[in-house]
């Protein structure tokens, strides 16, 4: 089992209250016992909790449902060695069981569009003047 230290707060640092539900994404065995995918409710006290969770495997992960104001649903891998901070648990893509892609900041898409326009301008033909003073296209 691995202790997961949770500390949830509002943007101004006020501790949140409410539970975090941890549900395995599939049934798993511990010795001869079959553990079913039902939620383990962990109440926050002054925004903190320290549940002792079974380490996940490459076949399954934990779904963490933060039932607090502003909370979200995460799919996380719990390591076999702890204690570990909840904030450092890697987010996992539930479809692939691989680490979830880190979303790019919104400005990256705008910058890519701008770079595309610059590339287009750089590739456009330009006008030159020959030795007789006549214009001609360069790069056309």
Structure description:
The protein is mostly beta strands and 140 residues long. Strand 8 and strand 9 form a beta hairpin.
Tally of extended strands?
Answer: 14
Structural class: mainly beta
Unreliable stretches covering 5 or more consecutive residues: none
Calculate the mean pLDDT score and round it.
Answer: 87
Describe the largest sheet: 4 strands, mixed
Task: State the distance separating the first and last CA atoms.
Answer: 68 Å
Helix content: 10-25%
Q: How much of the sequence is in beta strands? A: 35-45%
Gross geometry: elongated
From the alpha carbons, calculate the radius of gyration and give it in angstroms: 26 Å
Order of helices and strands: EEEEEEEEEEEEHEE
Number of helices: 1
In short:
By secondary structure, the chain is mostly beta strands. It is about 15% helix and about 35% strand. The mean pLDDT is about 85.
Secondary structure elements and their pairing?
Elements: E1 2-7, E2 18-24, E3 28-30, E4 33-35, E5 40-44, E6 48-49, E7 52-53, E8 62-66, E9 73-76, E10 84-85, E11 92-93, E12 98-99, H1 106-123, E13 126-129, E14 135-138
Task: For this entry, give a set of tags.
140 residues; mainly beta; 4-stranded mixed sheet; 4-stranded antiparallel sheet; 1 helix; 13% helix
């Amino acid at each position: 089992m691995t202790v997961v230290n949770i500390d949830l707060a509002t943007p101004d640092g006020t501790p949140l209250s409410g539970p975090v539900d941890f549900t395995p994404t599939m049934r798993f065995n511990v010795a001869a016992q079959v553990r079913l995918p039902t939620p383990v409710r962990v109440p926050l006290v002054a925004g903190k909790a320290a549940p002792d969770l079974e380490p996940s495997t490459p076949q399954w992960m934990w779904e963490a449902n933060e039932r607090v104001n502003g909370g979200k649903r995460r799919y996380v891998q719990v390591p076999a060695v702890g204690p570990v901070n909840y904030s450092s648990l890697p987010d996992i893509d539930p479809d692939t069981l691989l680490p979830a892609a880190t979303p790019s900041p919104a400005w990256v898409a705008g910058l890519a569009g701008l770079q595309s326009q610059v590339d287009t301008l750089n590739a456009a033909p330009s006008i030159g003047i020959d030795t007789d003073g006549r214009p001609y296209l360069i790069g056309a």
